[in-house]
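We close this part of the discussion by returning to an individual protein. Part of our work consisted of pairing the sequence of a single chain with a tokenised description of its backbone. What the numbers capture is local backbone geometry rather than side-chain detail. The amino acid sequence and the backbone structure tokens for this protein are reproduced below.
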Amino acid sequence: GTKVKGYALSVKQDTEEPRLVFLGTENGLWASIDEGQTWAQFRNGFPSVSTMDLAIQERESALIVGTFGRSIWILDDLLSLREIARGAGKGFAVFPVNPAVQVKGIFINPPGNIWTGFHTTFEGGNRPFGRVQVPFYVEKKLEKDSAKVTAQVYDAANGWVQTLPASSVDDGLNYLTWKLDEHETRLPGAYQGEGPKGIPVLPGDYKVVLSYKGKKDSTTVKVIPDPRFDYSNEVDEAHYLILKRLDKAAGKLGNALRDVEESGQVVDNVLQQLNAGGGPGEIKKASLDMKERLGHLLDKARAPRPNKQIGAWSSFEVTPQSKLYEAQNALRARLYKPSRQDIERVEVAEELIDGFVAQARLFFDKEWATYMEKVKAAQLSWFKDN
């Protein structure tokens, strides 16, 4: 009547929540959230093999499972199961998480050979590093319900840090990933979806607020420094401040580029209407000339692409955008305080961006204003101020 398949090989009651019990049989791992009254087979990637031994790591809140012939397996999210056993998973709930490590660097070498195959080092799958998976529970999700969960991250002073991409949900336990980063400006034309990690946040406590169908719940994520490196917080703070400084410059460039691109859309709209319904020839000539001028202005911010391009394309031309990316990429790989060379890269990027912004402002004050006066003088009734 318990629906447990096989005879018992091991049993372990949780050290913090007695209602949570694990049972190993020769057919896999089973879990109970009501002190053994009912059982459910635990799958989530765990195979149906002889489960010989069970142990709990107190500090990591993890269950260690010893199998016969399949090595060991680690369930590193006992915090969520404890909350469910306590009855917290009713309707919609967000569960606590273990401290998350802000990993230094952009790559960590695994032990031994990184390639798979014969005569190489076996390495089990580790939890994702440099990010945290926030667990949340949804009870009895409707079959055709397309609602998604959204999340906002705030710092200890309740300042907004990041908006996480909306995620679809399933019945039961779900996870939403935060890369332990702060929002970073992305320039127009760059990929606007879930891209690379933004500005790494400083160690500290952060509140993640999840919303689902009008309900809200939150949990605290404690971000801790990388234990492999022994230095003061000055390095983290210096690195964070220079990235924020560079992001401010990126914001200036992004605003200027958006103004140019939006103006190009206005010109395209004018040309489209002129081609469809006719209009003064001088307005069409002025619009074509303005479209070309806007293109040249964009080229000064980022290297111009060839008109006919086959295959990969790259440019070594120095532009505000190229210097911005150069400074960002150099800083991402630093494990120490920004050097004089790092600071100089930022200063060069700021100088070029400020120069372009000033040039764009002058362009809009004079050439664009003159063009708009001509369009308005033509009394095109369909035209809207922009």
